[in-house]
């Protein structure tokens, strides 16, 4: 009958339309949802992600790591999901595992306009990752247990037999401690780095994470330990009997070397190749690279160290501009990652 469309034609037309929508991506969650794997501590990253949702209307579905598997757990998850990615943005609390993903071809380039002002060493020349909001690797010292004249000045003090079982490090298989190890392998060479960690393993107590080290020193269970500025500053500002030492500003006589300098490790952002919500991912990257976010991280309890020259640094922590920073080639350190990781697994267990 003229003017009447058969049910078959209607069903067929709807089916074709649905296929077309799926193919073009016009009907998707890409505009209003983004999945973030966040290695930065939840207490620091979650408020910022919620603010992004409040300002943009884009819902954030975060996946946070576990303290004992900092960064490596999320990196391995991205590697395992590479054929069908669930993650859109990797907010890493360091850089070397981001470079591992880059080497595997799992990142997609995004030339964020917000990244253009950052120093070259903290952004990928191919726009595959973006560094911001760094932390320093520092010694936290219990001032009730250590006299000022005995304060440590170097990471080498962690292997001084005088302090045996009274100093601590995080297990060097995850997070910034693993990144620090790979940087030392690149800087010193394999043999010297291996000997350093052998000595360290005999002398120091190995904790589950950097936060555990800071708490153990704060509570008086350890005299001093190696941690990150974000974990150390919390104990300082809690009024605990601790102070922060930025290590290796002067030569360490027993090491026979020039001052190593303090290692600064940036947070990094990367858009995952093939992620379900690429356009929303780019908006989140732009937001996180803004001076307002770095300022918030700098002024917050974690006292992150800004890298954006348009962000005013907090006076609560030192910066690469105010002290001697360790000169490190992060790409070279990433090349040493597997060698360092295998050695450290054998030395410190799984």
In a few lines, what is going on in this structure?
The chain is built from 12 helices and 10 strands. It is an alpha/beta fold and 350 residues long.
Structure in words:
- The chain is an alpha/beta fold.
- It folds into 2 domains: 28-133 and 266-313, Periplasmic binding protein-like II (D-Maltodextrin-Binding Protein, domain 2, 3-Layer(aba) Sandwich); 135-263 and 340-348, D-Maltodextrin-Binding Protein, domain 2 (3-Layer(aba) Sandwich).
- Helix content is 38%, strand content 16%.
- The protein contains 12 helices and 10 strands.
- Strands 1, 2, 3, 4, 5, 6, 7, 8, 9 and 10 form a 10-stranded mixed β-sheet that branches.
- Strand 1 (33-38), helix 2 (42-56) and strand 2 form a beta-alpha-beta unit.
- Helix 3 packs parallel to helix 4 (96-103) and helix 6 (190-203) runs parallel beside helix 12 (337-348).
- It is globular.
- The chain starts with 6 loop residues before the first helix and ends with a helix.
- The relative contact order is 0.18.
- The model is unreliable at 1-28 (pLDDT under 50).
Q: What are the salient characteristics of this protein?
A:
350 residues, alpha/beta, D-Maltodextrin-Binding Protein, domain 2, 2 domains, ten-stranded mixed sheet, 12 helices, 10 strands, 38% helix, globular, disordered N terminus
Question: Which helices and strands, and how do they pair?
Answer:
Elements: H1 7-24, E1 33-38, H2 42-56, E2 59-64, H3 72-80, E3 89-92, H4 96-103, E4 107-108, E5 130-142, E6 167-170, H5 175-188, H6 190-203, E7 205-207, H7 210-218, E8 224-228, H8 229-237, E9 242-245, E10 264-272, H9 278-288, H10 291-299, H11 330-335, H12 337-348
Parallel strand pairs: 1-2, 1-3, 6-7, 6-8
Antiparallel strand pairs: 3-10, 4-10, 5-8, 5-9, 5-10
Helix pairs in contact: 3-4, 5-6, 5-12, 6-12
């Amino acid at each position: 009958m003229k003017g009447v469309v058969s049910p078959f034609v209607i069903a067929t037309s709807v089916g074709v339309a649905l296929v077309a929508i799926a193919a073009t991506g016009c009907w998707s969650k890409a505009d209003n949802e983004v999945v973030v794997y966040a290695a930065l501590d939840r207490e620091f990253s979650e408020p910022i992600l919620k603010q992004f949702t409040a300002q943009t209307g884009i819902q954030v579905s975060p996946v946070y790591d576990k303290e004992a598997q900092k960064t490596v757990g999320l990196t391995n998850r991205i590697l395992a999901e590479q054929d069908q990615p669930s993650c859109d943005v990797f907010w890493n609390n360091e850089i070397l595992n981001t470079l591992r993903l880059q080497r595997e071809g799992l990142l997609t380039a995004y030339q964020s306009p917000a990244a253009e002002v950052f120093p070259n060493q903290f952004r990928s020349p191919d726009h595959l990752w973006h560094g911001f909001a760094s932390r320093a690797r520092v010694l936290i010292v219990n001032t009730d247990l250590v006299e000022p004249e005995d304060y440590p000045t170097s990471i080498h003090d962690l292997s001084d037999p005088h302090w045996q079982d009274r100093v601590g490090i995080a297990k060097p298989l995850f997070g910034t401690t693993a990144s620090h190890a790979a940087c030392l392998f690149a800087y010193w060479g394999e043999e010297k780095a291996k000997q350093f960690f052998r000595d360290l393993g005999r002398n120091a107590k190995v904790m589950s994470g950097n936060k555990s080290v800071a708490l153990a020193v704060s509570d008086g269970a350890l005299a001093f330990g190696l941690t990150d500025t974000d974990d150390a500053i919390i104990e300082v500002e809690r009024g605990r009997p601790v102070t922060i030492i930025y290590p290796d500003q002067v030569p360490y006589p027993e090491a026979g070397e020039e001052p190593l300098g303090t290692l600064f490790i940036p947070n990094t952002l990367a858009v995952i190749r093939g992620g379900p919500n690429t356009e929303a991912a780019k908006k989140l990257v732009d937001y996180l690279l803004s001076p307002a976010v770095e300022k918030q991280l700098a002024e917050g309890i974690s006292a992150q160290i800004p890298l954006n020259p348009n962000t005013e640094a907090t006076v609560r922590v030192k910066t690469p501009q105010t002290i001697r920073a360790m000169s490190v080639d992060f790409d070279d350190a990433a090349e040493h990652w597997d060698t360092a990781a295998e050695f450290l697994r054998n030395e410190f267990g799984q």
